[in-house]
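Narrative of accomplishments. A recurring question from our advisory board has been how the design workflow behaves on a single, concrete structure rather than in aggregate. To address it, we present the structure tokens for one chain from the evaluation set, followed by the sequence designed for it. No filtering or post-editing was applied between the two.
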């Protein structure tokens, strides 16, 4: 109720200001390339003596006529509410009915029907009939455009936006030229319009090409037609409203010419080349909407469960976007609103408090209802009040009406080959609806009113009257004829027929509801207070038998239907977890988007064929580039671990959703236990296997990530535990209030305190604290017996680098220019196509190439997200020369690997399994030999790692197998003894 009064007051204030001083409002809302400046004088002239008289009229009781806008708003909303309630079963769309009421009211006032006894109402209607067109744009447009964009299914819009853009940009350009040809054709054939030039014809073409599908989209929803089709039609309207106004400004500017009152920026935009002007106005509006959206979403994200603040912020964001765009920057306010609305519907949906989000949508629906009610009644009144025409104008109107349908058919035909291959595609049946459902509405009429308010020196009064009449006539014809008859077209094309899977789902739901309701009656019969009820009368209130017939269900793939049900359940689970604070905003957004993508396949893809989680492992290319920049290293790591945290959060929510899905499958098993639907039982078993595979995949993912990055696991687990505790506290307070153990005021105080803690948790969740390099290094084999000062020096010489799954740390034949220590995650060592080792935290890689100076003989690839400490060759050599333990330990690690690689190629050891060979090598030891000494291998084998020795006069240098014998050490050498 408060919001209803607020919305009425908001509209009334704006409109009353317009009534009180239109010239002042025009000077305040200076946009549309100075059209308003010209409109000031024109509107004052058009408000003839009868209208001026109403400003001074005082009604009985002493009420000033300045209250006319408020009175008109009240009456219009009463008409709207009554129409919605009493005519809800009417075949005529709601907006069309309002337009008809507006026309009837306007004609009644124009014929002085209310003179004497209804002066107050007549004055209010005359005010509406001569309303400034810019007030329509500034007051109603932000609400209508933003609400339509905000209510859009963003996933469906993304897949439909390419086709919508085709119709809205090249489509509208083709349409305006073809419409202009029709106008000039009427002129050349001598039918009429002798004073119309090409510029005026093009201006009319762009005004009449702006579509307004409010009635059609509402009808598509009521009939249960494809959401994809409704989104395409609505998306086209949102985009072509923007492009139509932009092109309108460009053409009107060329007709009017520059104004001496223009500011610097306005003059700069005016003097741009038409193509550059179009680009500036269009892309400028989009960028402004995104900028305001970013600021608003950041603001709202810092608010928690405060509906007044969050709703106020978003409402003002819509209006300020349009005002700044049109009044200050001279860019497209419509496209700014579209980008703002889509940003709020996608990213913003998870930043708005879950308890407020549903309320916010309802509030915007209320505002849109009020705006639509007022604007269509006003449109009807304006047409009835201002339309000036001759008998021949009706013939021209009929020609134009037929012509715009031919033009629309040509446009759809031209671009159909592209549209059927883009996004969801477009088939011929849907293309017919797109053609016939291109209604014209308030935007076109508002632009026509702008033309009608121009100075006669710019455009003659005759052309202005014709322009308004033809535009108004097309609006009426498309809303009355097309909007009413399109229902029959949609039904004739069979577009209301449900898909078999969906029909089966609805049939099952209806049958289940009736069965459970009947069981409830049997339970109520045993209640001692109700057992004497008239049960025959009660049964009349049972749900009806399923309305969908077996013929409508048709031949359905049961397994596809079940998959769709499971996916919808999974999606609901994600949003429930988000509402309870157990799933983060980024995670719920990614998981929901993944579900939408799978749902596009209609249940034909197995549930386990998905890559949601694997995609979250991958590091974006820009992060890989940034981490190579020293100044951005810390920022990059922070972003990387944030992504991993979201990945873990997603995986945990994913597993939770799979467990919920298993419960749903179990309940579906119970539904068919008593029946003989063997096919469905088989399908359920397949689905259960798919879900279990998902569950195992998710659990494995969590286990690996928890093992690799325990810090992330601890931080998210802590956050969940805190939120679960706070949820319990909130439920306890609610329970105590219901039982009367707490007064409402005290319960509200306690709930507010809990919400403050929830907000603190949301804004400052437990952070991921990674251990310092020295802590990771001190327990490693490489640093055994290394003193702490040296260990600190080594630690400072390492730089940390992150790798996503599949990234290569070392490639085959890479030169030994760096050494890596695996700090977190696992890597796999591959020789050719064979994986020879999986190495985890604490392992060193790249040491053989560094110590021997040879290129790498293996590929080292990240098997999971990896954090590696990297040290360059020169630093390694300097440190190895400073500490003998550091050097000896590294050669020992390298020696074991080199021994394994060499022995695996021999006949004796090559037959052994890799693990057994590794156990033999682990028992070996590293020998450090000094030049000039003697070294004896007695009944043992060795691998010479570096240096040179002499055996029986033959010098052995480099990496070689060494048989038992007595060796003279030529150069300092390292030998690994088996």
């Amino acid at each position: 109720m408060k919001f209803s009064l607020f919305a009425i007051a908001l509209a009334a204030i704006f409109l009353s200001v317009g009534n009180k001083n239109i010239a002042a409002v025009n000077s305040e809302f200076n946009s549309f390339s100075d059209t308003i400046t010209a409109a000031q004088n024109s509107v004052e002239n058009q408000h003839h003596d009868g209208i001026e008289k109403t400003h001074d009229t005082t009604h009985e009781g002493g009420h000033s006529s300045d209250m006319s806008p408020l009175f008109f708003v009240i009456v219009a909303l009463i008409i709207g509410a009554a129409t919605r309630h009493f005519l809800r079963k009417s075949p005529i769309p709601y907006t069309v009915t309002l337009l008809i009421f507006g026309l009837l009211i306007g004609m009644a006032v124009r014929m002085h029907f209310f003179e004497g006894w209804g002066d107050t109402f007549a004055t209010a209607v005359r005010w509406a009939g001569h309303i400034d067109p810019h007030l329509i744009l500034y007051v109603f447009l932000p609400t209508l455009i933003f609400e339509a964009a905000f209510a859009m299914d963003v996933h469906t819009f993304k897949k439909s936006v390419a086709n919508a853009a085709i119709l809205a940009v090249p489509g509208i350009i083709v349409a305006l030229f073809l419409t202009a040809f029709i106008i000039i054709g009427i002129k050349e054939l001598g039918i009429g319009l002798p004073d119309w030039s090409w510029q005026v014809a093009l201006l009319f073409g762009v005004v009449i090409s702006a579509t307004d599908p409010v009635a059609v989209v509402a009808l598509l929803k009521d009939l249960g037609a494809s959401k994809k089709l409704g989104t395409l039609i609505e998306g086209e309207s949102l985009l072509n409203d923007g492009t139509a106004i932009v092109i309108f400004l460009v053409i009107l500017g060329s007709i009017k010419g520059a104004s001496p009152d223009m500011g610097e920026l306005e003059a700069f935009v005016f003097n741009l080349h038409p193509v550059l002007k179009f680009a500036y106005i269009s892309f400028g509006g989009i960028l402004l909407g995104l900028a305001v959206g970013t600021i608003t979403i950041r603001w709202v994200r810092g608010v928690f469960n405060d509906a007044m603040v969050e709703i106020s912020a978003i409402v003002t964001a819509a209006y300020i976007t349009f005002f700044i765009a049109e009044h200050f920057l001279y860019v497209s306010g419509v496209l700014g609103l579209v980008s703002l609305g889509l940003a709020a519907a996608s990213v913003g949906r998870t930043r708005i408090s879950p308890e407020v989000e549903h309320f916010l949508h309802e509030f915007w629906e209320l505002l849109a209802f009020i705006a639509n009610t007022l604007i269509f009644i006003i449109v009807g009144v304006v047409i009835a009040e201002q339309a000036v025409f001759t008998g021949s104008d009706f013939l021209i109107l009929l020609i134009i009406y037929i012509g715009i349908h031919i033009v629309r058919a040509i446009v759809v035909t031209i671009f159909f080959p592209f549209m059927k291959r883009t996004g969801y595609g477009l088939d011929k049946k849907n293309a017919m609806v797109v053609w016939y459902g291109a209604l014209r509405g308030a935007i076109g009429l508002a632009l026509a009113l702008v033309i009608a308010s121009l100075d006669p020196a710019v455009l003659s009064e005759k052309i202005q009257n014709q322009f308004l009449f033809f535009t108004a006539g097309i609006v009426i014809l498309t809303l009355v004829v097309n909007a009413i008859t399109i229902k029959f077209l949609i039904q004739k094309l069979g577009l209301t027929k449900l898909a078999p899977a969906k029909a089966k789902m609805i049939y099952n739901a209806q049958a289940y509801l009736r069965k459970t309701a009947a069981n409830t009656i049997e339970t109520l019969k045993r209640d001692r207070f109700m057992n004497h009820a008239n049960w025959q009368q009660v049964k009349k209130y049972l749900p009806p038998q399923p309305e969908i017939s077996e013929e409508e269900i048709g031949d359905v793939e049961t397994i596809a239907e079940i998959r769709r049900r499971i996916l919808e359940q999974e999606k609901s689970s994600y949003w429930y977890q988000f509402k309870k604070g157990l799933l983060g905003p980024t995670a719920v957004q990614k998981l929901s988007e993944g579900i939408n993508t799978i749902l596009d396949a209609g249940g034909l893809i197995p549930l386990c064929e998905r890559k949601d989680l694997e995609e979250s492992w991958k590091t974006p290319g820009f992060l890989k580039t940034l981490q190579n920049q020293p100044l951005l290293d810390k920022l990059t790591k922070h972003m990387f671990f944030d992504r991993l945290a979201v990945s873990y959060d997603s995986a945990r929510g994913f597993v939770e959703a799979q467990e919920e899905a298993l419960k749903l499958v179990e309940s579906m098993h119970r539904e068919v236990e008593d029946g003989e639907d063997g096919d469905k039982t088989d399908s359920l078993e397949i689905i259960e296997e798919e879900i279990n595979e998902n569950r195992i995949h998710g659990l494995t993912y969590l286990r690996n990530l928890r093992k690799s990055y325990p810090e992330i696991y601890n931080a998210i687990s802590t956050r969940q535990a805190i939120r679960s505790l706070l949820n319990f506290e909130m439920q306890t307070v609610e329970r105590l209030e219901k039982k009367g153990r707490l007064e409402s005021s005290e319960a509200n105080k306690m709930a507010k305190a809990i919400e403050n803690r929830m907000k603190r948790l949301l804004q400052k969740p437990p952070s991921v604290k990674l251990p310092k390099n020295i802590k990771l290094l001190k327990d490693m084999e490489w640093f055994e017996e290394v003193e702490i000062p040296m260990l600190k020096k080594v630690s400072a010489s390492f730089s940390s680098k992150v790798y996503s799954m599949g990234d290569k740390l070392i490639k085959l034949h890479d030169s030994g220019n760096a050494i890596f220590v695996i700090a977190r995650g696992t890597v796999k060592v591959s020789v050719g196509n064979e994986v020879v080792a999986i190495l985890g935290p604490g392992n060193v890689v790249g040491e053989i190439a560094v110590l021997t100076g040879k290129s790498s003989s293996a590929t080292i690839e990240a098997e999971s997200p990896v954090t590696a400490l990297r040290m360059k060759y020169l630093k390694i050599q300097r440190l190895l020369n400073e500490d003998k333990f550091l050097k000896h330990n590294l050669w020992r690690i390298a020696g074991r690997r080199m021994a394994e690689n060499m022995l695996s190629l021999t006949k004796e050891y090559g037959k052994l399994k890799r693990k057994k060979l590794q156990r033999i090598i682990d028992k070996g030891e590293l020998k450090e030999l000094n030049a000039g000494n003697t070294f004896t291998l007695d009944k043992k084998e060795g691998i010479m790692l570096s240096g040179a020795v002499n055996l029986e006069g033959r010098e052995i240098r480099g990496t070689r197998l060494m048989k038992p014998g007595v060796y003279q050490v030529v150069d300092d050498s390292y030998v690994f003894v088996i």
